[in-house]
Amino acid sequence: MRILFAGTPDIAVPSLELLAAESDVVGVLTVPDKASGRGRHVISPPLKLAAERLDVAVFQPATLDSSIRDRIGKLGAELLVVFAYGHFFGPRFLALFPYGAINMHPSALPRYRGPSPLSAAILAGDEHIALTVQRIASEMDAGDILRQTPYPLNGDETTASLTEAVALAAAPEILAVVNQIAEGSETPMPQDHQKATYCQLVNREDAQLDWNESAEMIQRRVRAYIPWPRARTVLKGTTLVILEAAVIPQENSSMELGAIIGVDKSKGILIQTGEGILAVSRLQLASRKPMNFRSFLNGVKLVAGTVLGVHS
């Protein structure tokens, strides 16, 4: 089975590596390099770097126009395999592949169609997700399911840690479906579109904490927004990033929401929320390095009653 693999970020790399070892990957489709940072250094997408290590041809078109279709067509790829490519495919491009196109989506489809299913699952407090391989359809993430394997969550994942784990777990799921397609033994299962839910791209504004929310919900936001955009509040007019926190399910104090109640020597800085107490154990003040709460308190004096989230 001759495969064109399309993807961009690190999460797709183990799948490319496994398919390159077990099948015939004739090309990799990814996004163009881009300039980043103050020095505007050119950064290549992780999948490109992996493809170069594997000596697989790389294609980085800005658009999937007729010229790239001609180039891809000459590869003779029979199946398109997609994992986090980030762009839609038109019918003329999909027509290049006799065995069609499949996509890995790390959610229990039809739940969380869209670009941020892992963050969405953490925010919802889900106890499991799923690794779903689906046929690519004209509507986003609405294609027939070819394989769906439950994946349990333990409740302390961040989007970063879950992404790393899913990257490894997804690779054999994709390979299994590729082998089924090659054998003609795949069993498509239509999705129940009535049960579909959707997630959106995460943006920077999502990370601004609201202390009216419960400690549990705020702690989910802290985990969901690592590595980006990272949950944040304001301390005396300066941005304060919350990197790790735990929930203390006790009755609310009489202090204002967002107020610092005190410090627990083992759990961290205690903050009043709309329901319960949040214990912050790792944090970062703007322009400073991330640090644990003990190191933080060595350099920043916090007074009980100081209210976070107040701009001044």
What's a quick, concise take on this entry?
With 312 residues, this protein is of the alpha/beta class. It has helices at 13-22, 46-53, 66-73, 91-94, 117-124, 159-183, 215-224, 293-299, and strands at 2-7, 24-29, 34-36, 41-43, 58-59, 79-83, 101-105, 128-135, 145-152, 232-235, 238-248, 260-264, 268-272, 277-285, 291-292.
Note down, in words, how this protein is organized.
- There is one protein chain.
- This protein has 312 residues and is α/β, with parallel strands linked by helices.
- The chain folds into 2 domains: 2-195, Formyl transferase, N-terminal domain (Rossmann fold), CATH 3.40.50.170; 204-299, Formyl transferase, C-terminal domain (Methionyl-tRNA Fmet Formyltransferase, Chain A, domain 2), CATH 3.10.25.
- It is 26% helix and 26% strand.
- The protein is built from 8 helices and 15 strands.
- The protein has a 7-stranded mixed sheet.
- Strand 10 (232-235) and strand 11 form a beta hairpin.
- The longest helix has 25 residues, at 159-183.
- The mean pLDDT is 96.
Instruction: State the strand order across the main sheet.
Output: 5-2-1-6-7-8-9
Q: What is the CATH T-level topology of the largest domain? A: Rossmann fold
CATH homologous superfamily assignment of the largest domain: Formyl transferase, N-terminal domain
Biggest sheet: strands, sense, closure? Answer: 7 strands, mixed
Structural class: alpha/beta
Count of extended strands: 15
CA(first)-CA(last) distance: 62 Å
Shape: elongated
Gyration radius, rounded: 23 Å
The CATH C-level name of the largest domain is Alpha Beta
Percent range for helical residues? 25-40%
Low-confidence stretches: none
CATH architecture of the largest domain: 3-Layer(aba) Sandwich
